[in-house]
Write a structure and sequence with these properties.
The chain is of the alpha+beta class. It has one domain. Strands 1-2-3-4 form a 4-stranded antiparallel sheet. Helix 1 runs parallel beside helix 3. The longest helix is centred in the N-terminal third of the chain and has 30 residues.
Length: 171
């Protein structure tokens, strides 16, 4: 097997690992907690709180009528998954930051899509807050999507910093 094929396999395994970890943690939480129950892990900072999310990111559009909501929240992740696969294919396998970021986003999108198809909503349970400031509950898939996007942004910024400024015309 060539080095490129091994790298593609590694990125595929990263995406599948995210999917498996996401679904496993959701299954564990659902089997041990009741809806809306909360268990402190680090009091005043981090709890496990079981909630469902029928909306998009942080519950946006949760009140959209059902035929539109279910279609939108299935079509958009499918489009994102297709784009991640195209970007992975068109990016050199040796571009570690980009490929890893895309693999994390792909795994996260798959994890949340499985919930939407299977349940009609996404299971969230990671609950962060400091005093009155509360972050909406999220899950492993959401975390991996955010880390993947951060990898892509950092990589993009690093590439931009490596380029020299363009010389203005006539200079």
């Amino acid at each position: 097997m060539s080095r490129a094929a091994l790298l593609r396999l590694a990125y595929t395994l990263l995406s599948l690992s995210v999917l498996v970890l996401d679904q496993t943690t959701k299954t564990m939480v659902v089997s041990r907690m009741t809806l809306y129950s909360s268990a402190p892990v680090v009091p005043g900072l981090f709890h496990l709180t079981l909630v469902t999310n029928r909306g998009a990111l942080f519950g946006l559009f949760h009140d959209l009528p059902d035929p539109f909501r279910s279609t939108l929240f299935t079509a958009v992740p499918l489009l994102a998954i297709a784009l991640m696969l195209v970007f992975q294919y068109r990016t050199t396998v040796h571009d570690f930051a980009t490929q890893s970021g895309l693999a994390l986003i792909l795994g996260g999108a798959l994890g949340n899509l499985v919930d939407r198809i299977r349940l009609g909503y996404v299971i969230d349970f990671l609950d962060l807050f400091v005093g009155e400031h509360h972050w909406p509950a999220f899950n492993v898939a959401d975390s991996c999507i955010c880390v993947g996007v951060a990898c892509l942004v950092i990589d993009l910024l690093a590439r931009g910093w490596q380029r020299q400024a363009a010389i203005p015309p006539g200079a």
